[in-house]
Amino acid sequence: MTSIPPPEMREWLIAWSGTFLGATAVLILLAAILNLDTIRQQVQLILPGRMIKVVPVILLGGALATGFLAPQTHRIYYDETIYLSIGQNLAHLNRAQTCHSGGDDYGRFRCDQGEYNKQPNGFPFLASVVFRLFGTSETAIFILNNLLLGGAALAVLFLAIPAGGSWLAGVFAALIVILIPQNLHWYNTTAAEPSSAFFAAVTILAAFYYRQMKTPAALTLLTTLTAFSIQFRPESLLLPLLLIPILGKSLLANPRALLANLLLFFLLTLPLWLHFELFHNHPWGSTGTPFSMEYFQANLAVNGMHYLDNKEFPLLFSLLAVCGVIWPASHHRERALLALWFLLFWGVFLFFYAGSYHYGADMRYALLSALPLALLAGLGAEKIIQLLNQKSTIKLATLVSLMAALLVVSLLPFLPTVRALTDEAWAARADHRFAKQMGTLLPPESLVLTHNPNLFQLWGISAAQASLPQSDPAYVNRVLFARYRGGIFFHYNFWCNVADPIQNKFCEQILDQYNHEQIAEYHEKSYRYALYRLQPKKENPPP
């Protein structure tokens, strides 16, 4: 336990989280360069000769599959926008915060009031790198997650060899990763789960690599990747529990290097431990205990049948995964480790109050266990091909083509679901869509008061929290009206409609506190969205 007061801890985390993550990313790149020759040799062993051409095919195939088959949309409102806002703040200010009041000043982002978020900062940091390279853009993060589906498929392909399979099992597993309906559905969002799943797979691949090489450079690559990968979601902390049995006795191959890397690991992850110290009692949106045995039975009924009822997940993939577990001729330990990977990241949500795959948009949690399941399914598919090749006169190439075709055909009944927006968060989705239209109506040098300032800030529009006129009316009347010559506007949004008296009151007070003129109005089902231009009343004029 730390004795640092929470306000000081929050400010320290805001100021230093990005720097620690940046240092970790640089060390990963340096370690990768040190291991480049041996990594290249390993790739050539796994994919000999012309098979290396499959790498760009899988990478682009995964990106194009999710990009074209699934609608490009946000599904976690308003969390995805919060993550991107933190990324924007990290990119421009190197501060791990979401901005409550700020915006664009001639191409430079400014934040007057920031807040530290309860989620780890791995994904926002990744977004900040993209923003630094290509500019602040939601589209850029959609493309990033598209590419991560191809990257996850590649990671699974290369994991097939240390798991006891061949390149053929890896290709089948990579194809299954791309064909899993939930992957297609969620890798075309800006959610954090795709990157969390991808980096977990890459870290596990690095663990198998170190187990084989046992060099200090390989250990440093594993250490830095682990330090980075556990900072994407809270359950990412389960990753070291999987790495220890994978490494086994190889951990003790070089005690001095191990000690140095443990020290490096804890240094690089210092902000994460402070982060969890700050939020260890956070309710995470629950009205009771967020983690408890009381949720286990209900979540098990839903999350277990998810893989068996052939409604949202192809039963064929599950059956192949079972074959991959129970039908190995050798490498029993490796198959058990893959099963443990699946059980850890599937089982953790059985105890979470919102862990049911049918609880709102929490189907996204299935992404974290999808990769080990796909890998086991690829190994199972390979075993079936080998058996049929021995028992029949059908050529191997024909059997491989038939299995690949069968995997693709198994997706067809799920394509309507993949293409669906779904009705979860329909009101928030409409809020986002209409807010973007409202943004085009704003004159230069204007500011929007809204419950969701991050939306407008990501589009280059200055915005502040709707609560600001009540919490600091003098600042609004004397500073903001004078600073923003284009005017002050109010975004009548999702939170003005939802049954939440506290949030509704902010909307009512703004319209009562200022003279207002309606600029635009939109409707979605029973919800109303509008844009108002505000003017101070005579008793509260700007200077």
Record keyword descriptors for this entry.
543 residues; 7-stranded mixed beta sheet; 61% helix
Itemize the secondary structure elements and their pairings.
Elements: H1 6-34, H2 36-46, H3 54-69, H4 79-93, E1 98-105, E2 108-115, H5 122-134, H6 138-159, H7 167-179, H8 181-186, H9 193-213, H10 216-229, H11 239-247, H12 255-268, H13 270-279, H14 296-305, H15 315-326, H16 332-347, H17 367-391, H18 396-411, H19 415-419, H20 426-439, E3 446-450, H21 453-458, E4 462-465, H22 468-471, H23 473-483, E5 487-492, H24 494-497, H25 501-513, E6 514-524, E7 527-536
Parallel strand pairs: 3-4, 3-5
Antiparallel strand pairs: 1-2, 1-4, 5-7, 6-7
Helix pairs in contact: 1-10, 1-13, 3-6, 3-7, 4-5, 6-7, 6-9, 6-17, 7-17, 7-18, 9-10, 9-11, 9-17, 10-12, 11-16, 15-17, 16-17, 17-18
Number of domains: 2
In DSSP terms (H or I, runs of 4 or more residues), the helix count works out at: 25
User: Which overall shape is indicated by the principal axes computed on the Cα atoms?
Assistant: globular
Q: Strand tally, please?
A: 7
**Which range best describes the helical content: under 10%, 10-25%, 25-40%, 40-55%, 55-70% or over 70%?**
55-70%
The end-to-end span amounts to 49 Å
* Mean pLDDT reading: 93
Order of the strands making up the biggest sheet: 2-1-4-3-5-7-6
Main sheet summary: 7 strands, mixed
Strand fraction = 5-15%
User: What are the segments in which pLDDT stays under 50 over at least 5 consecutive residues?
Assistant: none
Structural class estimated from helices and strands: alpha/beta
Radius of gyration: 25 Å
